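Predict structure. Chain length: 136.
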Amino acid sequence: MPKPKQPMRPPTAFERLADPEGRRRAADPNLTANGAVRAGRAAQFMPFAALTGYYELVRKQEITAEPKCELTEEKALELSKKLEGLKRGDLVRDTYGYRSRTSILDEVLPAFKLLKLRDIAIDFDNIQDVELRGRA
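Prediction complete.
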């Protein structure tokens, strides 16, 4: 019955002098060229997290839920008239949530309560203001 293979120990100074090319060490995949155990060498490249959970806590605090700003009746009527006057291809600047965006209008879908721009669809309930910047 063959003996189980034991990990090789690092070479002594005499063994390094006797085998300067490290032929014996090169045959063992668990050792590096200078004879150090690979597992010990790999440990220096392991990720180090000194502040465990810190980044997760920061991400949670970045996201703040702010209450939705309701429009008054007058503002809602004004916004409705502005939306009715828009046509496909118009350059519009809309304010929704707490953001503003200038883009080309694809279509207004009153049945679905959506304002479709080239790169985003915005729900009517989120729109605060629409400004026409140019006609197509």
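Summary: The radius of gyration is 34 Å.
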